[in-house]
Amino acid sequence: MTEPQTNTLEVPGGVLTYVVRSNDSSTEPVLLMIASPMGAAGFGTLSGYFTDRTVVTYDPRGVERSKRTDGAPESTPDEHADDLHRLISALDAGPVDIFASSGGAVNALALVSRHPEQVRTLIAHEPPLAEVLPDREHALAAIRDIHETYQRGGVGPGMVKFITLVSHRGPIPADFADRSAPDPAAFGLPTEDDGSRNDPMLGQHIIWVTHYQHDFDALRTAPTRIVVAAGAESEGQMTYRGAVAVAERLATAPVIFPSDHGGFLGGEYGQTGDPPAFAAKLREVLTAKD
Q1: What is the pLDDT of residues 22-48, one digit of tens each?
Q2: Element at 58 (helix H, strand E)
Q3: Which CATH superfamily is 5-129+212-287 part of?
């Protein structure tokens, strides 16, 4: 594998930054690793386990080095899916394999429903789709409350409610959005509002990604091999339950990966999962013939 090469790609309304770790001797499809709103830096550890392939990572529009040029404050899954379509076209490497986590899984599923010919295998890891949960009404209400709390009080109050929701196990109770939140200071979060409202998670992203409605008919008939993945340590949490619900809609079963929602992280963004075991499972699933 060569040294990572950073490139840019102009797309309607933005400029994407992406990183290519080339292996010119590989006969395997390009492996695209994506998330949202996490950027390319989050895959530094995981990509190191796939030096036998060409690996591409990127910053979604509006995140880190990828800029919006149209003045819009937020990006939708449909826009991200179109960006991915254009990125894969620019790579000119034929159908790719995609490992997509969290919001990236939502975006990648949207891509496959529109351009299935561009993706050989998609591993959709814990898409946080509250929209497909049996308790969707209560889950979506809790998510809207997080966004509104952030808009009123800033990062600390919004993020502590976010942490409370994503760590909850089991169906979301009807009164969840009305419950008192913990003190942000107990989580090392700011207690003072600095006035900024540019957090990539707590802005409209959390609304778009959890409320998105997929075309499951298109996904079921796509030639793309779609594998839905869930973390062993996430069982019962909203992202795990989202993966289970998506798999049910696709008439399949989720594949259980080691660790949790950030199981592939090796210290990036201050989080550490179990990247060696996670990478081994990812390789196993990528090479399976099902």
Answers
A1: 998 999 999 999 999 999 999 999 999
A2: strand 55-59
A3: Alpha/Beta hydrolase fold, catalytic domain (3.40.50.1820)
